[in-house]
Amino acid sequence: MACPRCGGRLERYELSDRVEAACVDCGYVGVPVDHGSERARQESWAAAMERVESQVDASVSPPPRDPPTGARRLLTARQRSTKAGTRTERRTTPRTRRRSTEARTGTEQLTAPRA
Prior knowledge:
- The structure is a single chain.
- The protein is of the alpha+beta class.
- The protein has a domain at 1-31.
- It is 30% helix and 10% strand.
- The protein is built from 3 helices and 2 strands; from the N terminus they run E-E-H-H-H.
- The protein has helices spanning 45-59, 77-84, 94-105; strands at 10-15, 18-23.
- A two-stranded antiparallel sheet has the order 1-2.
- A hairpin with a 2-residue loop joins strand 1 (10-15) and strand 2 (18-23).
């Protein structure tokens, strides 16, 4: 059998159920091969920026300008508690106050144990 590319002699190879023929002279095996790499398409900076900006512009929608008429204003938890008058302040007891005084001055006050 003759090689379709160069006219040289073909050898037959069998592996399991597949049969292939390869040319002894040029290495042709019936599979189209391009040994050169394809050059990537060059893109200018202006074209790249335009492409990116058009994708961003298409995917971003502007925020609504005004809330609809009659819409309830959303309050934070702190605003709600202050508005309702339920805001709790941390209160210090005399015992807590005494401990914090000891911590500041480095002195220990002796107190009688409670019954």
